[in-house]
Amino acid sequence: MGECHYLYGNYATDKRVRFLRKLLGFSGIEEDRLRVRWISSAEGPEFAEEIRDFVKALRELGPSPLKSIEQRLKAA
Amino acid sequence: MIEKVKERVRELLSSGEIKGFLGLSNKYGHTGPHLFGDAEDLDSMVIGDWNGPGDARYTLNKQLIHIARQYPDDVFGVLVRGCDERGLNVLYTWNQLNPDKVVPVGIACPEELARACECRQPWPEAFVAGEKVKGFDSDSVARLDALDITGRFDAWIKEFSKCIKCYGCRDVCPMCFCNECSLEDNDLVTTGSIPPEIPVFHLTRAIHMVGRCIDCGLCNEACPADIPLRTLYKKVADIIDDEYQYRPGQELYAKSPLNILMQPASADSAE
Prior knowledge:
The complex is a heterodimer. Chain A is 58% helix and 0% strand. Chain A is built from 3 helices and no strands. Chain B is built from 10 helices and 5 strands; from the N terminus they run H-E-E-E-H-E-H-E-H-H-H-H-H-H-H. The A-B interface holds A 1, 7-8, 11-12, 14-20, 22-30, 36-38, 65-66, 69, 72-73, 76 and B 144-145, 149-158, 161, 195, 198-199, 203, 206-207, 210, 232, 235-236, 239-240, 243, 257-258, 261-265, 269-271.
């Protein structure tokens, strides 16, 4: 965690993302649609693996509820 | 109740301890903020009860910031309820007001108002009128927490879609003092068109309430569409309190946990 190029950035981000995941959950959007991982620019394969894993998880979650907003507004 | 407030204000003005007192007055059938400067002229003073307790409150702290900026060397008194005192603590912490230049005159809220506000502490530490009543937990948050995720989504989208982007919530909020507001930044929020982006507009505001919102409920009262914004911001405060045992305004000069750098959230932070 202490390896941020911008010194404190990842501490701040960690707190904010943890908070935002819960806020999203309360607003009706699955927490797992937001993810944070620390990956250095030298860690190409790790990045690729993380993305593959995230896309898989997102596919399992299905379409985001946000996609339905426009229809809901029209129907209302 | 008002007599005790007037007595205190008279005392402060006559002794010269304050240059003016920012409170509420009722003139020609309307309640509005008023800067009382003359100890003899307090007849029109009210505490913000119109049809019921506290239903004619104003964002006095915010107005005090503007007054204090014009008259930085003068001391002003201000009417405070429990929420306003929390507000002052946060504004002192953020350097928007100087505690040496502010004399709060406190009133404790009646149970009816405290229940309606779901207020955790409906009294300031020092008050000249009213009686301490117990605080309330939030039913409105609990009711939403009890729904499943789809239920919550439906509920919030229904509420947010009423929004006409009047910025009332932001304008009335005593904690919103930023010179450059994220809600007017074209890179974050589309400006110049209605309706607002749902739920981006509302969640953006909610995120900015971290470490700021003192749960005064003026946003709810300002909203022309009756969106339960206060409930959203109560949840924001709960999320932060659960993790960091911090609530805005409880402790003077306590920094918001998201403003403290170099400190991990907890042992199981993201790796």
